[in-house]
Design brief:
By secondary structure, the protein is mainly alpha-helical. Helix content is about 75%, strand content about 0%. It has helices at about 5-20, 25-30, 35-45, 50-60, 65-80, 85-90, 105-145, 150-180. α6 packs parallel to α7 (about 105-145). The longest helix has about 45 residues, at about 105-145.
Length: about 190
């Protein structure tokens, strides 16, 4: 069973992890597990100066933050965050990297590989939405062409439809180029 102080500390940590708390109460500062908060911040890859913000907020209540404990927890959390095998997923999920890993090169290479896939997926999604919107516009213009009695307006709708068809071809070409890039075959001599 969790004590009231334990529930407050857990609530505070959850609140901080979600970024929903703008200030800390006196009770929250007094009950804070600085090690656990540092661990959570490190595990999320937050910047190493994140602890200073907590210290400032708790200092307003006359309570000193234990930045040594926070730093100890932060370093342990970073050990989990900085695993190169997980870096790819972080990049692919669109997370931001704060440059916190001690052996940056391996981590960063995997993170950037995942980030490129994230950006590619975002661009493909953007293109798919543009294609869908353009298709709706083409259908709308075709309907107007069929129902318009004024030949000058009908010609204007035809011109707009031709532009929309060219745009559709360009969007689909880019989508297919990104979705199915040309493959290069290397021959070793």
């Amino acid at each position: 069973m969790m004590t009231t102080t334990g529930s407050r500390a857990a609530l505070l940590i959850l609140c901080m992890l979600l970024g929903a708390c703008s200030s800390l109460s006196r009770e929250e500062c007094a009950a804070m597990s600085w090690y656990n908060l540092g661990f959570a911040d490190g595990e999320q890859g937050k910047a190493p100066d994140a602890g200073k913000g907590y210290a400032e907020r708790c200092g307003e209540h006359g309570i000193a933050a234990d930045l040594g404990e926070w730093q100890r927890g932060y370093q342990k959390g970073l050990e989990l965050y900085c695993i190169p095998e997980l870096a790819y997923r972080k990049g692919r999920d669109g997370e931001e990297y704060q440059g916190v890993c001690p052996h940056d090169e391996t981590f960063l290479r995997q993170f950037e590989r995942g980030q490129r896939e994230y950006q590619l997926a975002a661009r493909l999604d953007e293109l798919a939405q543009a294609i869908g919107q353009n298709e709706r516009e083409i259908r709308r213009l075709e309907q107007l062409i069929r129902t318009e009695g004024d030949s000058a307006r009908r010609d204007g709708y035809r011109y707009q439809r031709e532009r929309a068809l060219r745009r559709d071809a360009a969007l689909r070409q880019e989508y297919n180029r990104l979705r199915h890039p040309p493959r290069v075959i290397e021959f070793k001599l």
